[in-house]
Design goal:
- By secondary structure, the chain is α/β, with parallel strands linked by helices.
- The strands form two sheets. Strands 1, 2, 3, 4, 6, 7, 8, 9, 10, 11 and 12 form an eleven-stranded mixed sheet that branches. The chain has a two-stranded antiparallel sheet with strand order 5-13.
- The chain is globular.
């Protein structure tokens, strides 16, 4: 059993290229809350003791000014900056590279501030309280070095009406340990069913297929282990200007190398997020409905 309250790590350094704006700090809740504020609210309710924000240093001042007054006295906060040069190991970053190296690189940037088991999530995804409660319980009672977890959502609860999405299909063994996470691209809804493109053909996916929404539970040992993997990644991919070092792929490497296991923890929570501009009014309406139903207060921090 963990003796220190787990932390929540929020990936908020992305440039939101498909969305066309800084959706991490856009207001969606009825009192102007961002999506990630709902995650923080749920994490506090579940029992998490600290939230660690991974952000870009250039908007750190405005980010902190917006979030600190709301969280003061409610949960401990820490900040980590992701930059292209972080953990480069002296390697020269190509001049044409503009974006950081992905979600696992972001998590690696947290290496020196992680002092407890933690969950990691995206800033712009709504995950639902059940996911935080289940992750907290696992981080307290089930986790140990080399024994991690991923929250598994039902595919039907993660699709957008406004375009195709990429999801990590979770394949498990009889013990619910993940065998692989397969990236499925261009998943779209049609007539109440889900399809993906494979070799220019439409392949149907069952609606109850379990998928990863980048909600993982780790100990600091996973991040320490990933550092050597990151240097391998750089040596093989540095010239690729859009190559990314991603959490699901690194978790997959861990599993296949026999260095650890990742348990799938299922949730029936409905995920929603803002992948496309057209998703914004849908998310605002969903949050308003949750408020109307009494699941969240009108103002999260009042």
């Amino acid at each position: 059993m963990a003796t220190t309250k787990p932390s929540l790590v929020i990936l908020a350094a992305g440039m939101a290229s498909r969305y066309g704006g800084n959706k991490q700090t856009e207001s969606f809740g009825p009192s102007g809350e961002t999506i990630m504020e709902y995650s923080i609210y749920d994490a506090i309710k579940a029992g998490f003791g600290k939230v660690i924000f991974i952000i870009r240093e250039e908007f750190a001042e405005s980010f902190k000014a917006g979030i600190e007054p709301k969280l003061a006295g409610k949960i401990e906060t820490d900040y980590v900056y992701q930059s292209l040069e972080s953990f480069s190991g002296g390697r020269e970053i190509p001049a044409g590279r503009t974006k950081p190296f992905g979600t696992m690189h972001a998590l690696l940037c947290c290496k020196d501030v992680l002092d407890a088991p933690f969950a990691v999530i995206n800033a712009d995804d709504f995950y639902g309280f059940d996911a935080f409660k289940q992750s907290y319980d696992y981080l307290i009672d089930g986790i140990e070095d080399g024994k991690y977890a991923c929250i598994g959502y039902e595919l039907k609860n993660t699709l957008s009406d406004n375009g195709s999405v990429t999801r990590g299909e979770i394949n498990v063994d009889a013990l619910q340990n993940i065998v692989s996470i397969t990236e499925r691209k261009e998943i779209y809804k049609k007539d109440g069913r889900a399809f993906t493109k494979e070799a220019d053909a439409d392949v149907e996916l069952p609606l109850d297929t379990k998928v990863s929404m980048n909600f993982f539970c780790f100990t600091p040992a996973f991040v320490n282990w990933s550092e050597a993997e990151y240097y391998k990644f750089l040596d093989e991919n540095l010239a690729e200007l859009k190559a990314e070092f991603l959490i699901p792929e690194v978790a997959d490497t861990l599993i296949n190398s026999g260095k650890g296991v990742v348990k799938m923890i299922p949730t029936e929570a409905k995920w929603f997020g803002v992948t496309f501009k057209e998703d914004a009014p849908v998310v605002k309406a969903a949050l308003q409905q949750l408020n109307d139903d009494g699941i969240y207060p009108f103002n999260l921090w009042a």
